[in-house]
Amino acid sequence: MRPAADAPPKMKIWRAHLASLNECRLSGGGFSEQRSAGNGGMENKLEKTERIAAVILSGGSGKRMGSDVPKQYLEILGRPVLYYSLKAFADSGVVDDIILVVGKGDISYCREEIVEKWNISGVSRIVEGGRERYDSVCEGLRAVEEAAYVLIHDGARPLVTAGVIRDSVQTAKIYGACVAGMPVKDTIKIADGEQFAAGTPDRSLLWQVQTPQTFSYPMIRAAYEKMKMVEEHEPAKWGSMHITDDAMVAETFAGVRVKLIPGGYENIKITTPEDLILAETLLRHRQNH
């Protein structure tokens, strides 16, 4: 992880903004304030009082990668993609429990060949996921025993940083729901059914959404359970829905507004062979700086 001094200016401004907001709510839930004299002045220390869980999803396939090996098990610099994601959360200093959600039949492999082999701490449970991503998230949330807030992260995003994880938790404590992402760089076109350009949305309003996506645990758990009820008992309504991320579940089934925070353009998801090359280059650069 790079030193804080190397953080982009916009990220520094955002973290200063978070610190200011958190200063206003120190007397509320989540943290208690301790003051101690030091270096001739007063120093604020935050003592953690709420449990934070992370649900890491590792049930993807290698279909678009053109590989028989699931993408999260492919190696970058001699270690599996999933290792880097788990390690970031384990070393973040803010996550108490990690729930790893894996594909069918992969529990033993992940425990022995990734968690134990690479000595990754904090993984409290490994559970099997479901058919769709939202099924796997739901299984992961159900496996959380106790938490005030939960981060949901794609295991195929190995370049997430401890800074983004901490910023996500801090923002969720203020707003109840937040998603990491970045403003889009390219012009986006809306296509019609015949692949002709049908519109051009204002690029200044568009973000590419990433993970972690972080929420009040009771809120997102209830929202997912409500979503599953609709899927099971209201097929017509469910058929008109196209749930693509956790923020949509919170917006649709809990009616909450989701705060967007900077995640970093390097926080890529490994999907195609080109992504592996880019991720290796970025990891080498990070290790050398």
Instruction: Kindly state the percentage of residues in helix.
Output: 25-40%
| Order of strands in the sheet with most strands | 7-6-3-8-12-9-13
Summed up, the domain count is 1
Distance, first to last CA: 8 Å
What is the count of helical runs? 9
Q: Mind telling me the C-alpha Rg?
A: 20 Å
CATH homolog superfamily: Spore Coat Polysaccharide Biosynthesis Protein SpsA, Chain A
Average pLDDT confidence is 87
User: What proportion of the residues form beta strands (DSSP E)?
Assistant: 15-25%
| Global shape | globular
Spell out the helices and strands N to C.
HEEEEEHEHEHEHEEEEHHHEH
Q: What is the CATH topology descriptor?
A: Spore Coat Polysaccharide Biosynthesis Protein SpsA, Chain A
CATH architect. name: Alpha-Beta Complex
Give the biggest sheet. 7 strands, mixed
Q: Which class of secondary structure composition applies to the elements?
A: alpha/beta
- Runs in which pLDDT lies below 50 for 5 or more consecutive residues are 1-5, 24-47
What's the level 1 CATH class? Alpha Beta
The number of distinct β-strands equals: 13
Question: Outline of this structure?
Answer:
Helix content is 36%, strand content 25%.
Give a description of the structure:
The chain is globular. The protein has a seven-stranded mixed beta sheet with strand order 7-6-3-8-12-9-13, sandwiched between helices. A two-stranded antiparallel ribbon has the order 1-2. A two-stranded antiparallel ribbon has the order 4-5. By secondary structure, the protein is an alpha/beta fold. It contains nine helices and 13 strands. The model is unreliable at 1-5 and 24-47 (pLDDT under 50). It has one domain (50-194, 202-287): Spore Coat Polysaccharide Biosynthesis Protein SpsA, Chain A (Alpha-Beta Complex).
